[in-house]
Amino acid sequence: MSSENDYDKLTKEEREARDKADREREEAEQAALPYKWKQELGEVDITVPVPKGTRARDLAVIIQKKKLSVGLKGQEKIMEGELCREIKLEDSTWTLEDQQSLLIHLEKLNKQQWWDNILTHHPKIDTRKIQPENSKLSDLDGETRGMVEKMMFDNQQKQMGKPTSDELKKMEALKKFQAAHPELDFSNAKIS
Length: 192
Prior knowledge:
By secondary structure, this protein is α+β, with helices and mostly antiparallel strands.
């Protein structure tokens, strides 16, 4: 039996207790990492504390499509390993802030997926519990915006018992076909 099925069988109080314990465990695991991180659907930002007075030339930062390595030259790596997902290398960067914080910005290749962790060997977070910030349609790229607008339209249509955008397209195509072929009898035709 899977743990998800077990979870469904718990009472409300038991679920709340388990969620609280999971949150506390997750927070402790994340706090033990040598960096802090946050994410949005399209990007990940990592903050790595470095000794005060560190200069950019003292750092050894390697960002690759599926790997990340961070350290001070001549010393053991602060973090190194395989990224949990691929990134857009050309849009990912790092900078040193106040000679004490290394800021790494990674652009996700798949902008529709939450990351469980940064490096595959580090503890995972429960991405099902992420509550994204509200965004405006104008913040989205053209393709994503079109997809969201279509979904919103289709949901409204369904709630009113009206055809979705795909169903409307099928109806329009059928009307055009009928107009182009008046010799055919469509009196018993159904759209599915």
